[in-house]
Amino acid sequence: MHIEMKSIRIVFPFIIGFLTLASCRAQPEQNVQNKQDRPPAVAGSFYPSSETELIRMLENAFGTTKKIEEKNPLAIIVPHAGYIYSGNVAAAGFRQIDRKSRFEHIFLLGSSHTMYFNGAAVYDQGDFITPLGKVKVDTLARWLTMNYKVFDSNPKPHLKEHSLEVQLPFLQYWLEQDFSIVPIILGGEDRETCRKVAEALRPFFNSKNLFVISTDFSHYPDYQDAQYSDNKLAEAVITNSARHFLDVKNELETSNISNLATAMCGWTSVYSLMLITQDQEELNYKKIRYQNSGDTPYGDKDRVVGYCAIAVFRDRQTANSYNLSTEDKITLLKIARNTLTSYIPDKKEPPISLDKLPESLKKPAGAFVTLKQNHDLRGCIGHFEADNPLYLIVEKMAIAAATEDPRFYPVKKEEIPGLEIEISVLTPLKKIENIDEIELGKHGIYIKKGYRAGTFLPQVATGTGWNKEEYLGHCARDKAGIGWDGWKTADIYIYEALVFSEHEFKL
């Protein structure tokens, strides 16, 4: 049926689903028996049900966009309102993808608007249908439900949910190669669910795949307040700190912003993405486009909804100037553990066969070794100077972290099996004259004043969510012992770190 443009003007820029307390858990066998394609639920309301009209609208939306990076994004965050409100912003996000790309899997993550349930629902009952044709659901969808308890195969959360459906025509129109999707809806607001989803999907976060995160930003404040809230939360996302993102979201929602129902309706999906990306310093979040419903001819400025497109690129230079492969990282982690196992009880360093050691580990480099016990710090010592081979620095720093960190008692033999080892390989120190050169999450800092000095690794800023002044203040006061404002009269150096741990490789 042909849809006239005037019929689309009645689309609201937002939707709040009535939450129904209901269980979403169902037996996979039942779902297989009732397997069927998922028909469009919001065609004719959120976007045209006419193929011709839909293509025309998409052409117009993409015509307002431009690509800002040569590289392909690994993930995009895009809005999911009616196309007349958020279509141009969504198109700007999808525009960052190379049209000729062929992806192994495209993951779609959205947060439920129509029902409340525990866990995450993966639609694996059939394919999705839109006015532009059929979108194939990847076989990986069923594999996830069969291998991770956090994922449920009940189709009900998907049947009326718009947040994933509205993304499909953008993919169908823009991508020239065939693709398949893994559609995931998160229920409730449980952070543990987000953590489990992130853990399951982390191995797939690479250039072979694409993550599409569906969310709108602020709901219902006036135009000016929406701009303030949305820009502040977008800046929090761009820091790539999941903790900081939540802190800013909670700060906004407990502030005095009138009529702010939520700062982001799909925050669980964005949070899940950030739990995947936050420890990868080479990733860079970039804001692509922002507007709210008040910027369109169809919305007023008294009650608006915010829309923002953000892309995640792997385009930062990392500390991996030593070309460390996965095997190199594993070798260093094993050297550190073998050193602890041998040195703690017997004070003997284990022999290392240099003939079998990769040349990359024989090059000089600075490094830190961090020991954790039940996710808590148990010791951390490092060496900045690249004056010894990397493998030897790791061996020495493993011993020092276990026995010389003044904040802790020396590690005992019985503690070793419960320790997790993390290694940070460092780039050379670079003295800076202006703190504007510091990029949180990318740069570690080394503050020196007289005989006093202290450092924070790059991941400290990511893990704490501190702003730049807090990062410097804590380092000056807590590590260098020169007072909160001591950094203002001290020498400040920055460096980068390639960070990897036993947890990453499940050693």
Compact summary:
The protein is of the alpha/beta class.
Description:
The chain is 32% helix and 21% strand. It has helices at residues 5-8, 28-33, 51-62, 83-94, 140-147, 156-159, 168-174, 191-201, 223-238, 242-253, 267-277, 326-346, 390-403, 458-464, 468-480, 502-505; strands spanning 75-78, 105-111, 120-122, 128-130, 133-137, 151-152, 180-186, 209-214, 283-292, 306-314, 366-373, 376-383, 419-426, 430-432, 444-449, 452-456, 491-495, 497-501. It contains 16 helices and 18 strands. The termini are far apart. The strands form three sheets. Strands 1, 2, 3, 4, 5, 6, 7, 8, 9 and 10 form a ten-stranded mixed sheet that branches. A four-stranded antiparallel sheet has the order 12-11-13-18. The chain has a four-stranded antiparallel sheet with strand order 14-17-15-16. A hairpin with a 2-residue loop joins strand 15 (444-449) and strand 16. It folds into two domains: 5-18 and 26-314, LigB-like (Protocatechuate 4,5-dioxygenase, Chain B, 3-Layer(aba) Sandwich); 326-505, Hypothetical protein ph0010, domain 1 (Glycoprotein, Type 4 Pilin).
Structural class: alpha/beta
The averaged pLDDT comes out at 89
DSSP, total strands: 18
Strand content bin = 15-25%
Rg calc: 25 Å
Main sheet summary: 10 strands, mixed
CATH architecture of the largest domain: 3-Layer(aba) Sandwich
**What is the CATH T-level topology of the largest domain?**
Protocatechuate 4,5-dioxygenase, Chain B
Give the overall shape.
globular
How far apart the termini lie comes to 58 Å
Give the helix tally: 16
